[in-house]
Amino acid sequence: MDAAKRWLEAHPRARVALLTLYYLALISTLLVMYGRGKFDTPEFVYQEF
Length: 49
Prior knowledge:
The protein is mostly helical. It is built from two helices and no strands.
């Protein structure tokens, strides 16, 4: 883990590129999950007590 930190500090463009890929993957995952227009909440949220 320490070697990865040193490598990223030595290559600032790689850090920006990896962060960009991370955020694009996050956004694309959200689009796949909610892009169909189905915003129903799960049934277990509204359990009767």
